[in-house]
Design goal:
It is built from ten helices and six strands. Strands 2-1-3-4-5-6 form a six-stranded parallel sheet, with helices on both faces. α3 runs parallel beside α4 and α7 crosses α9. The longest helix is centred in the middle third of the chain and has 15 residues. GO terms for molecular function: DNA binding. This is DNA-binding response regulator. InterPro entries: CheY-like_superfamily, NreC/VraR/RcsB-like_REC, Sig_transdc_resp-reg_C-effctor, Sig_transdc_resp-reg_receiver, Tscrpt_reg_LuxR_C, WalR-like.
């Protein structure tokens, strides 16, 4: 049997901590190995417990979630820990700083439980994840900053269907929404996404969004 994904939950609100731990612990493939209420303790516990994923709040006492993420997963950390930031605050600077700090994903606390569980599994697998609503807002706010100059080349080495999927990713659609829009299965969408990232030499969906805007594929 495959060992369960070991999760450390860090949130300064005890009720939310308990709720997350209950949801996560009920899954046969997930295991809560610890809980804490501030970023400093999260760093200490992660060093001792070596969880596969830390579910991290942003606004916390002693040390906030962004700095804790940087200490756990930032550039130059010799043995980084994967971090999924889950917060109430859908603010651009939090999303941007969390990703810069090394977070593998960013979700809002009002996301349904299945999205939280999917996020943990996605980040544990080494893939990046952004809440679809967060992606939409970031794209809308920063699109003008990354659009290509007039006359910039727009040729993209993708098949027509792959190009269609890339445009939908750039518009903030999740795999499920893309599957519904194109009337295909989510597994097929995952295959297309994997091909797109490989062909364009991109790390994750976030880079795919930026690529699409820089190439003028979406407006």
């Amino acid at each position: 049997m495959t060992a369960p994904i070991r999760v450390l939950v860090c949130d300064d609100q005890a009720l939310i901590r308990t709720g997350f731990a209950t949801i996560i612990g009920a899954q046969p493939d997930l295991e809560v190995v610890g809980e804490c209420g501030d970023g400093r303790t999260a760093v200490e516990l992660a060093g001792r417990l070596r969880p596969d994923v830390v579910v991290m709040d942003v606004r916390m006492p002693v040390l906030d979630g962004i700095e804790a993420t940087r200490l756990l997963a930032g550039t130059g950390v010799p043995d980084p820990v994967k971090v999924l930031v889950v917060t109430t605050f859908n603010l651009d600077e939090y999303v941007y700083e969390a990703l810069r700090a090394g977070a593998g994903g960013f979700l809002l606390k009002d996301a349904p439980a299945d999205r939280l569980l999917h996020g943990i599994r996605t980040v544990a697998a080494g893939a990046a994840l952004l809440d679809p609503e967060v992606t939409r807002q970031l794209v809308g706010r920063y699109a003008t900053r990354i659009r290509p100059p007039a006359g910039a080349p727009t040729d993209v080495p993708l098949a027509p269907r792959e190009l269609e999927v890339l445009r939908l990713i750039a518009n903030g659609l999740s795999n499920g929404e893309i599957a519904a829009a194109l009337v295909i299965s989510q597994e097929t969408v995952k295959t297309y996404v994997s091909r797109i990232l490989t062909k364009l030499d991109l790390r994750d969906r976030v880079q795919a969004v930026v690529y699409a805007y820089r190439r003028g594929l979406v407006t």
